[in-house]
Amino acid sequence: MSLILYLRVSNLHAYYMILTVTIHDTIGLGKIQKTIDVSFQTEVVTVKEIIEARVWKEVNDYNNSLPEYFNGLVQPTNAEKTLNGYRLKERKPIDAEKQVYIALDAFMKNGYFILVNNKQVESLDQQVQLSSTSPIRFVKLTPLVGG
Asked: Strand, coil or helix: what is 120?
């Protein structure tokens, strides 16, 4: 959904567009595990901005209610991975900037990949054109078990 805000300041008129897109998490190319809506002020954004917006939204949602589990893109420090998400040893706010750094590093180390408009993005600086219907998928890679 796109929303256009109109502001009137004195005799100047300004239009600000807020573009909301839905991000889907999948494991492999299979079933959707999670969805999250994020907003941008422009239709052209970088991959880095997509990751940052997603992580900030997840952390803010968690910090506002401090539930038992954090269901974010990357594991916070002092948290254990469980079937229900990441369980922090102590329920306290998570540092969003630190989570963004971890998420960007994981992307660069191929911990997950991202498809925007059904095309894999390659770098953090890559610009993509979004619309309210642009499919964005974060695909987490699962390690193979065995010898």
From this structure: strand
Burial class (CB in 10 A: 0-12, 13-18, 19+), 70: buried
**In terms of residue numbers, what domain contains 61?**
2-140
Three-state DSSP class for 19? strand
Residue 47 is given by DSSP the state: H
Q: Is residue 125 part of a domain?
A: yes
The three-state DSSP-derived secondary structure of 34-51 is EEEEEEECCCEEEHHHHH
CB 130 within 8 A of CB 109: no
pLDDT classification of 13: cutoffs 50, 70, 90: very low
Which residue stretches of the chain are H helix?
A: 47-65, 96-108
122, part of any domain: yes
This prediction's pTM: 0.84
pLDDT digits over 35-94, tens only?
999 999 999 999 999 999 999 999 999 999 999 999 999 999 889 999 888 999 989 999
Amino acid code (one letter) for 3: L
Encoded tokens for 22: 């839905």
Structure tokens at 82: 């469980």
